[in-house]
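Hi C.,

You asked whether I'd gotten around to modeling the 166-residue construct. I have! Everything is below, sequence then structure, no commentary in between.
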Amino acid sequence: MLHFTRFVSARPFLAVAAIAAGLTLTSCSPVVDVTPAKDAANAACAPMMLALPDAIGDAKLRKTNAQATAAWGDPSAVILRCGVNVPGPTTDRCVSVNDVDWVIKEGNPVWTLTTFGRQPATEILMDPNKISSATVLADLSAAAQKIKATRKCVGQEDLQNLPTSK
């Protein structure tokens, strides 16, 4: 009588176990619920989203449930949305960090930082009591540069050099 021995590879079973373990581990940090911006489907957002850092300061990048959004920290210390309305001329404070201009609106406690002169615009919501705005802007400037600048902020010193009408 002949006996056939059937060899069953353990690889498929190990792969399933690894996937199950990965799902269990990622479920510890829930997906962040973020409302997408009106123009989140703008193709210009994609290169920026791919260039986002894995961490801002000590805050690690987390998964979000909306296109062209990102979040860092648990609980979220920084929320990013690409495709927000492009800010027009403003008297709000504007700073330039690594060749990216940002309009800053200080709220209590959340600040809103929006790229100026780039279309689509990118908005960052952050609490300066939890993370430094300087760290956030420095860490996100390389990604924000993926959207081409078409204008720059104008400061008080620039206004002094404007031609006057006679």
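If it helps when you're writing up: Residues 11-26 form the longest helix (16 residues).

Thanks,
B.
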